[in-house]
Amino acid sequence: AQKVTQAQTEISVVEKEDVTLDCVYETRDTTYYLFWYKQPPSGELVFLIRRNSFDEQNEISGRYSWNFQKSTSSFNFTITASQVVDSAVYFCALSESITGNQFYFGTGTSLTVIP
Amino acid sequence: GAGVSQTPSNKVTEKGKYVELRCDPISGHTALYWYRQSLGQGPEFLIYFQGTGAADDSGLPNDRFFAVRPEGSVSTLKIQRTERGDSAVYLCASSLFPSYNEQFFGPGTRLTVL
Hints:
The complex is a heterodimer of chains A (about 120) and B (about 110).
Chain A: E1 4-5, E2 10-14, E3 19-21, E4 24-25, E5 32-39, E6 46-52, E7 59-61, E8 64-69, E9 74-79, E10 88-96, E11 104-105, E12 109-114
Parallel strand pairs in A: 2-12
Antiparallel strand pairs in A: 1-4, 3-9, 5-6, 5-10, 7-8, 8-9, 10-11, 10-12
Chain B: E1 5-7, E2 10-13, E3 19-24, E4 31-37, E5 44-50, E6 53-56, E7 65-68, E8 75-79, E9 88-95, E10 104-105, E11 109-113
Parallel strand pairs in B: 2-11
Antiparallel strand pairs in B: 1-3, 3-8, 4-5, 4-9, 5-6, 7-8, 9-10, 9-11
């Protein structure tokens, strides 16, 4: 079974629109970490955020915000006032204490921001 | 400071050949990871090193794949008797400490097996 599900394969929005990328995870562990990475066309994965399972506070960083809800096993990512430079593939990932240090990545959501 | 570097950036080889892919992690990072990313997929874990030893190699698909990190810094992923199905981007990542710290990724090596 897939540990991280990103149901949205591709999303297109017009510049300045808000967009939310969904991430649903599955784990039996009580201690785990969730991550978001951005993969621009250049290919290099860029770290965006890490959250641990004990901290459900939402986080905002500039135009980016993250909504972590343990009740629904979701860790969604919202970009406000999208820009063309936000066009990339975004990956959600899970790291569990049981399995140690490997990351389980979702299949990614390809975001295209149209000028 | 310098990020994670990987060489070569592209490698084209013929089926049955042997290849080596190199990763140079961020200086001082003790943990090093190899992932494989196929087209349209997320990275898939292969192996994790803590220092010189492979702490978790559960993701290696078969015994044709092997990785080393002899001095606890640079790592080499070795693939014997390559198959067309091995074609993918091989990503290396490092982190300051293991255990849930963010991993910093290199640009990857695109391997094509003809």
